[in-house]
Amino acid sequence: MKAVAALDQVVMRYGRVTALDRVSFGLEAGSVVALVGHNGAGKTTVLKLVLGLIQPTEGTVRVLGGDPAGGKGAAIRRRIGFLPETASFHAAMTGRELLAFYAGLKGAVPAQAADILSHVGLDHAADRRVGTYSKGMRQRLGMAQALLGDPDLVLLDEPTSGLDPNSRLQVYQTIDALKARGKSILVSTHALAEIEAHADKVVLIHEGRVLAAGTLQGLRDGARLPTVARLTVRDGWEAGGLTAAGNGIHLDREADKVTVAVPQGGMPAFLDILAGMRPWVAEVEIAPPTLDRLYQHLLAEAGGAR
After folding, report:
1. In what helix (H) or strand (E) does residue 292 lie, and over which residues does it extend?
2. What are the φ/ψ torsions at residue 182 (nearest 5 degrees)?
3. H-type helices in 120-276, by residue range?
4. Which among 68, 97, 185, 273 is placed 20 to 30 Å from 56, CA to CA?
5. Is residue 13 helix, strand or coil?
6. Are strands 58-63 and 3-14 parallel, antiparallel or unpaired?
7. pTM for the whole thing?
8. Rounded CA gap, 151 and 72, in Å?
9. For residue 176, which of 157, 158, 195, 202 has the smallest C-alpha distance?
10. Rounded CA separation 240/233 (Å)
């Protein structure tokens, strides 16, 4: 499938500072890619390159079939929706007025503004001044302006930063809805636990370098981290064959709580053993490696390689 956006061996330097070092990844049509990393990792620089606001020192950036910083950059940007990390709007304008203003700048149909306000849950506040909006409402307004003109590619820079749980949920519902319509979404975030259920592909970036890129399952397979099982056990429970020599299973127990680390590929054997302990096991919770665990593992590996 042809990439909607692709970076190939991109280097970005500001004087002696290297913001990006040989970054390569692609975003396919109708998919969600999460660009994951802590503050200062280089995520916003990637978004600026995709928008064509800056040109790479080395390497190539292709977006929607062209160079976003080239002669046809303006036409490419009209097909992109962008939500910056900090969206700032004129406080005296109403939500409806603001979207009409941005629609004019983008060449979008002004009548579309009402539908988009409803889509992001702001139809009830369309005629209120933006200065009266909460942070969550302003973020939804920012999402609304990003969706003007029905863009093919949507870039979201830390879209849930500082939001309450309900507002964060609404952001991810919007991301899921865009994907269902065949749109391509690139999300820059350090909220690892939130994004993993919504991303088709994850790009882990640290200090301007890509630590790993791929599906969450592919990253799990590559890291070979254990799956964690948490058991609540009854009186009389014994470890039995769980830690038999050579099976690689490790456990810790505190009162009636047992934490078991099951190595990759060892889950079928673990479940067979657990089935024999059924009378003494009250509850079982199985948690595969999270994106946060994967990121920390890869950080540790990168640190050890230096």
Report:
1. helix 291-305
2. 85, 10
3. 135-147, 165-180, 192-195, 216-223, 267-275
4. 185
5. strand
6. antiparallel
7. 0.86
8. 16
9. 195
10. 13
Q: Could you tell me the two tokens for 57?
A: 């020192």
Residue tagged 């160079």 (tokens): 67
pLDDT tens digits for 79-134?
A: 999 999 887 899 999 999 999 998 888 888 877 788 888 888 888 999 999 999 98
Say how far apart CA 304 and CA 306 lie, in whole Å.
6
CA–CA distances in Å: residue 107 to residues 99, 111, 125: 12, 12, 24
Count CB-CB contacts under 10 A for residue 254. 7
129 contacts 55 by C-beta, under 8 angstroms: no
The secondary structure of residue 88, as a DSSP letter, is: -
Q: What are the structure tokens assigned to 40, written together? A: 């200062």
Retrieve residue 69's tokens. 């910083």
Q: What is the pLDDT of residues 71-91, one digit of tens each?
A: 999 999 999 999 998 878 999
Strands 227-233 and 281-287 come out as: antiparallel
Q: Exposure pattern of 158-180 as b/e (b: 16+ CB <10 Å)? A: bbbeebeeebbebbbebbeebbe
Amino acid letter, residue 44: T
Q: Is it the case that residue 306 has pLDDT exceeding 70?
A: no
Q: Are 144 and 174 in contact (CB under 8 A)?
A: no
Q: Count other C-beta atoms under 10 Å from residue 111's C-beta.
A: 9
d(CA 292, CA 202): 12
Q: Left (φ > 0), alpha (ψ -120 to 50) or beta: where does 181 sit?
A: alpha
Please name the helix (run of DSSP H) or strand (run of DSSP E) that holds residue 171, with its range, or none. helix 165-180
Residue 50 and residue 44 in contact, taking contact as beta carbons nearer than 8 Å? no
Residue of 93, 96, 194 whose CA lies nearest to 145: 96
Contacts of 164 (CB under 8 A, 6+ apart): 136
